[in-house]
Structures are given as C-alpha cells and as structure tokens.
C-alpha cells in the first residue's frame, strides 16, 4: 500500500464535489420536513432529476438547461407526492416509498436510449486571484459552478428560515399546523410549495451525478444517495449549518475510501465501499438528534 500517492489537497477538493449532490438533496428535504411533511421519496426524485437533466443536456447541448430540466422533473414528481398526501390524505411514509420505486422505474424507462452517451462538459471555474491562493485556492476556488450554487442554496435556506416572515410561517406550519390554520395561514399551500422546492433540489442533486460527477447516464446511479440525504437531515437536527457538515462528512469518507482503494489498501473493496454508509449510521447513533418539527408526518385535516 502506497499512501504517498494520496494528495491531501486533491482529497479535500474532491470532498466538496462528492458532498454536493447529497447537500442539494438534503437541504431540499430539510425545508420539506420543517413544513411538517416527511417525504421518503428523495431517492426517486434524485434519479428522476438525473435522467431528466441528462436528456435535456444531451438534447440541447447545454448543462445549465439540463440542471433546469432536472429541477423541473424533480419538482413535478414531488408535486405528485404533495397531491396524494396533502389533498387525498394518503400516508406520507407509504407514499414516499412508492415514489422512490416509481422514480427508479420511470428513470430506467426514460434513460434506455441514453446509455453510453457522454453529456456535454461542464468546466470548472478558476476564480481569479482566489483560485491562485496556495493550498486554499485549489481546495475551495477551483470547482464547477454547481458547487457554489449548492452552498448559496444552503445559505439562502438558513437566512430564509431564520430571518424572513415566510420562513417563520413555514416553521409555524411545521410545528403546529392546526394553530397555523387557526391564524389564517394556508397550510396546504405552504406545504405544497415546500414539497416542490424539495423535489427541485433533489433533482439538482441527481443531475449533478449524471452531468458532472460521472458524467453519463447509468441506471440506478444514485446508489442510495437519497437515503443518505434523509439521514443527514436527522443528523443535522433540521439545521442548515449542521447539514452542511454532515454532507461534507459523508463526502469525505466517500473520497477517502476511493483513494484507499487506489493506494492498494489490504482491505476488501466491498468493505471500503460500505464505509461511507457505515460512517453515516455510526454518526446517527452517536449524535443525538434535536427535536423534530411538532407536526412532522401528521396529516392535516382542513375541516378541523
């Protein structure tokens, strides 16, 4: 085993890239859960976003349009979940699981004609001056634009929930939907908007896999990323700052195990491949999650 082949600067830079799809999906799910809705269909929305983004990007030649198409695809699938759970009052857990299975099947069908095709390139940004700073520059300031878009979304969600009136209303709906309804707030409308935002973010996370990290379409390419995003939301205690740390933790373990495989570490590859998921489980067991939103997973009956 040759550990000298592992470049620590490249390792840390790769960490940010590996964390981005998880971070995008998790921040969307955080908003959904803060509104009092539990959507377990993140995996299905991510894989749908991955195939929609890939198809749009290949058809138009523009990765940016691909990401827009992915966000729309994820939001549309999420709106189906929202309609079933908020208007037809179906069970949120069962509907979310069904959404994942539906998304996996739909994406496999849509992507049949795109296997083996390479998506248009999405070049990295070399930010002038900042990108030339020793050590810090290559780690932080030489990534593709979606890395920074993801960080901006996390920052925007934090500011929205903490400082805006709309964020206060969303949190009120998530804590006690009956009280929010009594005050005249449109509970179903707030939750539908949150659900669609969560779907759009999950779609962006999926598209990041198919347009940047791979970049090609492979059936089932999310490989459980949606479930990790769900776990990170709980680990983060529904707080954007801790969510960012959780995403980077998972991304770091993912990149580290790939580098250890390349260095020829004398551990079976299967064990190394399991390590990011095992690390997530261990952290969830050790870390005590904060209090969940009071109305999380509860069905709202407008007639009350």
TrEMBL record:
InterPro entries: ABC_BtuC-like, ABC_transp_permease. It comes from Yoonia ponticola. This is Simple sugar transport system permease protein. It is a multi-pass membrane protein. One of its GO terms (molecular function) is transmembrane transporter activity. It is found in: Cell membrane. Keywords: Cell membrane, Membrane, Sugar transport, Transmembrane, Transmembrane helix, Transport. The chain crosses the membrane at residues 6-25, 37-58, 64-84, 96-115, 135-161, 192-211, 217-236, 243-260, 272-290. One of its GO terms (cellular component) is plasma membrane.
């Amino acid at each position: 085993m040759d550990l000298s082949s592992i470049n620590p600067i490249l390792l840390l830079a790769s960490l940010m890239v590996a964390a981005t799809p998880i971070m995008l999906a998790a921040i969307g799910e955080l908003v959904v859960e803060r509104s009092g809705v539990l959507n377990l269909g993140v995996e299905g929305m991510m894989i749908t976003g991955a195939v929609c983004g890939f198809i749009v990007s290949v058809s138009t030649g523009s990765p940016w349009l691909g990401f827009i198409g992915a966000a729309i695809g994820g939001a549309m699938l999420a709106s189906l979940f929202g309609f079933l759970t908020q208007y037809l009052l179906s069970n949120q857990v069962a509907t979310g699981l069904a959404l994942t299975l539906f998304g996996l099947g739909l994406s496999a069908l849509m992507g049949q004609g795109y296997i083996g095709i390479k998506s248009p390139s999405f070049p990295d940004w070399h930010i002038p001056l900042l990108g030339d700073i020793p050590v810090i520059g290559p780690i932080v300031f030489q990534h593709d634009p979606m890395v920074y878009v993801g960080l901006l979304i996390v920052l925007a969600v934090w500011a929205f929930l903490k400082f805006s009136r709309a964020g206060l209303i969303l949190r009120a709906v998530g804590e006690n939907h009956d009280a929010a309804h009594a005050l005249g707030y449109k509970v179903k409308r707030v939750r539908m908007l949150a659900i669609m935002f969560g779907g759009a973010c999950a779609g962006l996370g999926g598209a990041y896999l198919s347009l940047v990290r791979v970049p090609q379409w492979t059936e089932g390419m999310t490989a459980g990323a949606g479930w990790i995003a769900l776990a990170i939301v709980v680990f983060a205690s529904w707080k954007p700052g801790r969510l960012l740390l959780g995403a980077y933790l998972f991304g770091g373990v993912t990149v580290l195990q790939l580098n250890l495989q390349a260095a020829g570490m004398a551990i079976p590859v299967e064990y190394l491949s399991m390590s990011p998921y095992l690390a997530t489980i261990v952290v969830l067991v050790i870390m005590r999650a904060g209090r969940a939103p009071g109305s999380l997973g509860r069905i709202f009956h407008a007639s009350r």
